[in-house]
Amino acid sequence: KKKKQKKKKNFITLQNKLKKKKKDLDQQLFAKEQLLAQSQASERTFQSLLSQLKAQHRANENEIFSIEQTIRQRLENQNKLKDLEANGETILSWPTNGRYITARFRDPSYPYRHVFEHNAIDIRARQGTPLKAAASGYVARTKKCSLASCYAYTLIVHSNGLSTLYGHMNTISVNEGQFVSRGQVIGTSGAAPGTIGAGPFTTGPHLHFEVRKDGIPVNPLLYLIKDY
Q1: For residues 119 and 105, is the Cβ–Cβ distance under 8 A?
Q2: Which of 69, 35, 190, 197 is nearest to 140 (CA)?
Q3: Which residues are CB-contacts of 182 (< 8 A; sequence separation ≥ 6)?
Q4: Which of 95-104, 161-170, 203-212, 219-228 shows the lowest mean pLDDT across its residues?
């Protein structure tokens, strides 16, 4: 009888241990299911954000292309580009005193390449660095912002089908339709994450500098002056 009672006691103890283990396993399973659900939700959130960023980039590109074509046609109709064309300006000055490039034209290591191709060069520049017009021309667009999520830029139309774009600007000191001379200060650089005009595609302060030929982005290093 005592042996039976002891076996029964051991059986109850073992049964309690099994129940406890089952409870632990159930909790682990629930945690894994929750983690899986969160991961799937994060993936959906990421894909949604990615689609929004791509759409925003396409909208910016379409806006820039359309504005450049419209303004260039207007300037040609008003014969305002003839004097510039007579000077034959095809060599561009550097828009900053510094010339250290952090990302090259269509750089394969560009961090946002899964969103869009990098059709510019990024020049290292501290927040608030004065930016200068790379050549004489007319200001076609000044996209001024009051939010960090907004991408601020200035677009200048030059002769010979060239235009230059200065992105992530913190301040813009020129107006649309204004004539600017080579080397004239047009504003200050930005791009520090979370600052006004930086936009969503930035990891640190710099100037996003584009050169376009007949509306198509080209490598700025082919046009920037080489000597110091």
Answers
A1: yes
A2: 69
A3: 89, 93, 132, 133, 134, 135, 136
A4: 219-228
